[in-house]
Design a protein that fits this description.
431 residues, elongated, 6-stranded mixed beta barrel
Length: 431
């Protein structure tokens, strides 16, 4: 080992460049591993904390779809599912749609025909639900205001849309800030976009007015920059219906008394409601893991290319080191050192370079991964504060160590073999 240290010390520039190359390659691979590890861990933690044990959707739904086609009879399905399966605590229908919102300032400007050119309606994702029927489900935190105070879904009275309209709406903090509203403010919503600012007066005339009853935090189950919540029947009314029934929803979120029997509950509900596809938490996490694995495979291939390049570069440097020290190595052989001990000095030099590369690569990976984590979190709104795209643990560090050992071993094979085959007599006679 002292001889290997001395070999590195005598060529500091070459040694430092080689170790830096190894470190950057290892850092890239470890960062990619930490990224996939963090996404998997955070997604699992969030899913387990959400209270959602099963998700129902239209029978034509698959987990790789970007949007969920609606299923009908949402209110009756939500009532019947707990009757069919006694293990169901809550079956909450959610309708996810997109609306455009306007505030009172824009309304006043539209009525005065004096709308500034940079003003306009604000698009936002909107959830229709039955706020009182979410027992066991994690819902967005209400920061200000009373929230929804009327239980059930009053507009959907006795299976019809003849009940009173509450015109109550909860906005997340981002949407409330964009619209410049607070509790008690009025906003208008419509699924139709006005063709121009000149048409805003007519747009307001046909839009649905709402009163803000609460300001909430973001909601990770519907990750979007802005989000609003209204009663299910009222969103159904605003969106209108192009389907066979007015009573439709996108998802049915199901919370169980005993989540360990989720597969059996899935089969029971699926058999009773053939119009639904029912997915377990394991199905959803499996779909997430499948996507993560695809990116991980791609990232690993990119990282391996970097590792191979680093190993080849290290091999070249070690070959040069053997050539530079050929006379010394021959002299060692002449005074009694065996071929294997000569080869071992080259292997030690390779592992020293790889070890220095590891010392460089782990901090680089840690700093790079955390910077990437902050960047990704800033791009995706609605994530809880505990969510992290990066997860450093013992397995990630161990993978980095194994990569270092592999780089050192592969890089040392050819140079060690060359050192062991040096012709002693010829090297000693050489000028």
């Amino acid at each position: 080992m002292p001889y290997a240290f001395d070999a590195l010390r005598r060529r500091p520039g070459r040694s430092a460049t080689t170790a830096l190359g190894i470190g950057l390659a290892i850092g890239l691979v470890v960062m990619l591993l930490a990224l996939s590890n963090g996404i998997t861990a955070s997604a699992t933690e969030l899913a387990n904390a959400s209270g959602v044990d099963l998700i129902g959707a239209s029978a034509s739904t698959t987990l790789n779809m970007q949007q969920f086609p609606p299923f009908g009879d949402a209110h009756s399905v939500a009532t019947e599912v707990p009757r069919v399966d006694a293990n169901v605590v809550t079956a909450s229908p959610w309708l996810v749609g997109n609306l455009l919102f306007g505030n009172a300032s824009l309304w006043a400007a539209a009525n005065a025909s004096a709308v500034p050119s940079d003003w306009g309606t604000t698009p936002s994702g909107t959830v229709g639900w039955i706020p009182s029927d979410t027992v066991g489900l994690q819902t967005p935190a209400l920061y200000r205001g009373p929230g929804f105070t009327v239980p059930g879904d009053p507009h959907y009275a006795n299976g019809s849309y003849t009940g009173p309209l509450t015109h109550a709406i909860v906005l997340d903090q981002t949407l409330a800030a964009v619209l410049g509203v607070t509790n008690g403010s009025r906003v208008w919503a419509s699924p139709v976009s006005p063709p121009s600012n000149a048409a805003l007066e007519g747009w307001y005339a046909n839009a649905t007015p709402f009163v803000v009853v609460g300001i909430s935090g973001p909601y990770f189950l519907v990750p979007t920059a802005t989000l609003a919540f209204v009663y299910l029947s009222e969103l159904q009314t605003v969106l209108g219906s192009t389907y066979t029934t007015n009573d439709y929803a996108s998802l049915l979120l199901i919370h169980l008394h005993d989540p360990t029997t989720a597969a059996a509950d899935q089969a029971k509900i699926q058999a009773a409601f053939p119009g639904l596809s029912v997915f377990t938490l394991s199905d959803i996490l499996g779909a997430i893991q499948h996507v993560v694995n695809l990116y991980r495979t791609f990232g690993t291939l990119v990282g391996l290319i970097g590792v191979v390049v680093a190993a080849l570069f290290t091999t070249t440097v070690l070959q040069m080191s053997v050539d530079d020290r050929s006379r010394e190595l021959a002299l060692l052989r002449a005074i009694g050192h065996t071929r294997s001990s000569i080869g071992l000095t080259v292997v030690e030099e390779a592992f020293l370079l790889a070890g220095i590369g590891l010392a460089i690569g782990i901090p680089v990976a840690y700093l790079g991964a955390n910077a990437l984590n902050l960047f990704l979190i800033s791009l995706i709104p609605g994530l809880p504060t505990a969510f992290s795209f990066v997860g450093f643990d013992a397995t990630v560090i161990l993978d980095g160590v194994l990569i270092v050992l592999a780089v050192g071993l592969l890089a040392a094979i050819a140079p060690a073999a060359r050192a062991m085959r040096l012709p002693v007599a010829e090297e000693l006679r050489a000028p």
